Amino acid sequence: MLAAVLILSGLALAGGGAWLVALRGSPYYLAAGVAALASGVLLWRGRSAALWVFAGWLLATLVWALWESGLDWWPLAARLDLLFVLGVLLVTPWVARSLGSTGLGSARAALATVLMLSVGIAVASWTVDRHDQAGSLPAAAVVSDAASAVPSDEWHAYGRTGHGQRWSPLKQITPDNVGSLQLAWQFRTGDLRGRPGDPVETTYEVTPLKIGNRLYLCTPHQSVVALDATTGQQIWRYDPLIQGELALQHLTCRGLGYQPPRAEAPAAAASAPATEADTSPQRVGLLVAATSTGAKAIDRCPAKLFMPTADGRLIALDPETGAICRSFGGGRGQVDLWAHMPNLKPGSYYSTSPPVVTQNLVIIGGTVLDNVSTKEQSGVIRAFDIETGALVWNWDSGNPDATAPIAAGASYTPNSPNSWSISSVDEALGLVYVPMGNQPPDQWGGQRSAAVETYSSSVVALEVATGKPRWVFQTVHHDLWDYDVPSQPSLVDLTVGGATVPALVQPTKQGEIFVLDRRTGKPLLPVEEVAAPQGAATGDHTAPTQPRSAVSFEPQRLEGRHMWGATLFDQLACRIAFHRLRYDGRFTPPSEGGSLIYPGNFGVFNWGSIAVDPVRQVAFTTPTTLAFTSTLVPRPDATSLMVQGKGEPQGPLPALNENFGAPYAAKMSAFTSPLGIPCQQPPWGNVAGVDLRTGQVAWKHRNGTVRDLSPLPLPFRMGVPNIGGPMMTAGGVAFLSGTLDDYVRGYDVSTGRELWKQRLPAGGQATPMTYAGTDGRQLLLVVAGGHGSTGTKPGDYVLAYALPR
Questions:
Q1: In whole angstroms, what is the distance from residue 717 CA to residue 740 CA?
Q2: Mind giving me the DSSP string for 524-555?
Q3: Which residue, 112, 243, 439, 581, could crosslink 596 as a Cys pair with Cβ 3.0–4.6 Å?
Q4: Torsion angle in degrees (nearest 10) through CA of 602, 604, 606, 608
Q5: pLDDT value at residue 270
Q6: Is 544 exposed, middle or buried (0-12, 13-18, 19+ CB in 10 A)?
Q7: 53, 113 in Cβ contact below 8 A?
Q8: d(Cα 572, Cα 564) in Å, to the nearest integer?
Q9: Residue range 580-619, pLDDT digits in tens
Q10: Sheet holding 664-670, edge to edge
Q11: CA distance 114 to 240
Q12: Per-residue pLDDT, 272
């Protein structure tokens, strides 16, 4: 049996190895195939020389593995695991009895010696982590913009305040006591993914708000729930009655907007028109649905919660009762986000993220379908009067200079770049900071306008009062990689050259963290333009350079030696795939033959962003590095399905990546082995600490296990991807629940050392928050509901942790 295994393995390795050599890859696999065949044939014939050949093969593999990867356990394991198991079997007495006695003792000794050497090297590799960077962040406070109108024990916006820092001034939980955290209470919303019509990317990504002694959250299917913050008991629930048959690509709700009570009642303002939108029975019926079904309503709300819905509405609710605020939206308690929107297709446009709320305005963008067609909705950003819902201004990146409310009967620019993530606001400067996406299709840009080329994949500062653009900083030029700016900008005052400067910190999918003066958009830490690969598809072009920040988590350029797998065989398959793809480094353009995109559009950073401590002027970050592939498929016409099967699209679900109306459809996927694991070697996910004054990465550690990603619950700490953001506290502890194993973890901010972890009942792909209850205890709040696209366990949990009483 062993002889047959070796012979078959040899044939596979020799055949694949010859193919790899033809692709100018490593000759090792061809040589390994020959060695496997020779040892298998000799074993079949009962020759002890089989052990000598195998020992030589194992020793050569050990030397080759060390030459390629050094003392790095996981790359070594992929190269040696199968050989080691076969070698152990070959030295057993059962095999020895079938071999001739001539030279058998010395052959077994030689093989045993090489096996022992392999064990020694493996043990040595466990004592070091070549990817680990130890260090410490500065502890001294310098200057702080920590003062806020938000009480220290509350959380009023997605990032706690409009500055988007994800930092709390609470200090009760510290590195010394965080290990004692225990579950204080648990609430289940009853909202689980898997309903008819749910898209694959149905996710639970909400960060709740804490106001007074109440928590406010939304669920994936758009209900709004109020809980007692101390006990977790439900107080009220609101169901917005979402329209069915929606063309959804995503179904999620990241959070709510909150308007606190105003010191004085505003001067009498005209009510907003009921809607300036499409006045079809479908839309009008939708706008009156909540009141027509008996939902509670009050004329005017001193404070408001703002809830964006999947069918394109923005609803205002009373935080006290959950009643609709009639004064907003002309008596209906809602405004229609389809107003003046081109290409009406319910579900193809809505806001997955909470709006920005200022003293007088609620400001909101929205997501459009990615890579479905060239006739999608507008990426317009709109500001509504916070009391009446009247449209105050609109900024359309396809028509950026016209910000006055659009004329009756007019439409916004189709297919203009949108903002689907969370914006930040500095009301003292009078600016709202908007992270912008790309114009679909993402992978081909041959017909983009000058305005699109300016505002696509950028962060834009708009005047709060007028919506006029003050400045724009583009993070990717002529984006062909779906490198939308996915993260909320973090606003923080930094000490630069002895002066206090209002800064904006912007993480990106490609791994840059740009640190800008938020007054002007000028870099505070150096940004250089570096040469980028050329050679776009026919009719398109690539930018000659791309910006690179002094704070960069750009991953190491991939080579054949970085390919990985569970065994030699899938590692060989990954090497063959790697050499068949076009890869010229970061910003390799998509191609008809297939390109390797690294990092891929999953993003080094995504919507969870980073956490920023305004006192220490440091950031806690969660860089993820996964490679993807991108292949352009020529389209013969504007309607045929090219990457999703045959025929015409059916039903409301969108035909993703078909790019109807463009010259190419796009095939995109993670770069994985035949076993479905990443082709690049781990780690795939880390935590890292950054000094924002200098740009120095003080420490970096792999983060997370493969317990929930492998067929067996193996707790191997390999460093796994993260989707969901971190949170920091003044107590010196950071928290993160978004790794693709089902844990919430606490870390020492200074060193990044993991101090505490707790098993979650479902995937925790949301950003945690913290607050204090009426009993004075600081609570850590974690939402665990899973993420459809990453396959984490679904759930409907809201979990609060606290120190023992």
A1: 12
A2: SS-EEEEE----PPTT----SEEEEESEE-PP
A3: 581
A4: 130
A5: 44
A6: exposed
A7: no
A8: 8
A9: 999 999 999 999 999 999 999 999 999 999 999 999 999 9
A10: 595-597, 628-634, 664-670
A11: 68
A12: 46
Rounded to 5°, angle at Cα 703 from 700 and 706:
150
Tell me what percent of the residues of the chain surpass a pLDDT of 70. Answer: 94
Whole-angstrom Cα distance, residue 664 to residue 539?
Answer: 11
* The two structure tokens encoding residue 731: 């107590």
Task: Report d(CA 481, CA 464) in Å as an integer.
Answer: 31
CA 256 from chain centre, in angstroms, equals: 20
In contact, 313 and 287? CB cutoff 8 Å? yes
pLDDT for position 144: 58
Angle at 184 between CA 153 and CA 204, to 5 degrees: 80
Catalytic residues: 482
Calculate the alpha carbon distances from 523 to 332, 496, 519, 531 in Å: 45, 12, 11, 19
Helix/strand/coil for 292: helix
Residue 49 has φ and ψ, to the nearest 5°, of: -60, -20
Helix, strand, coil distribution of the chain in percent, nearest 5: 15, 25, 55
In this structure, the strands spanning 664-670 and 304-308 are unpaired
568-580 vs 28-44: helix crossing angle, rounded to 10: 150
DSSP 8-state assignment for residue 660: B
Q: Tell the residue number behind the tokens 């709320």, with chain if given.
A: 357
Q: Which residues contact 600 (CB under 8 A, 6 or more apart)?
A: 626, 627, 628, 670, 671
Residue 2 has pLDDT above 70, yes or no: yes
Where would I find the beta strands (DSSP E) of 508-638?
512-517, 527-531, 545-549, 551-552, 595-597, 611-613, 618-621, 628-634
Q: ∠79-119-686 over CA atoms, to 5°?
A: 60
Round to whole Å and give the CA distance between 187 and 227: 9
Q: Is the dihedral of CA 706, 509, 160, 753 positive or negative?
A: positive
Give CA–CA dist 676/634, Å, rounded. 27
The pLDDT of residue 646 is: 63
pLDDT at residue 239 tops 90: yes
Can you state the angle between helices 2-22 and 73-90, rounded to 10 degrees? 140
| Per-residue CA distances from 123 to 183, 564, 619 (Å) | 37, 20, 34
Average pLDDT rounded to a whole number, residues 695-704 = 97
Q: How far is the C-alpha of 33 from the C-alpha of 772, rounded, in Å?
A: 63
pLDDT for 683? 97
The DSSP symbol for 685 reads B
464-504 residue pLDDT tens: 999 999 999 999 999 999 999 999 999 999 998 889 999 99
Cβ–Cβ under 8 Å, residues 317 and 304: yes
Average pLDDT of 358-373? 95
Average pLDDT score over residue span 35-55: 93
Taking 90 as the threshold, does the pLDDT of residue 399 lie above it?
yes
- Cα dist from 205 to 98, 219, 434, 765, 784, whole Å: 61, 9, 20, 6, 8
Burial of 267 (0-12, 13-18, 19+ CB in 10 A): exposed
Longest dimension (CA), the chain: 105
SS3 at position 796: coil
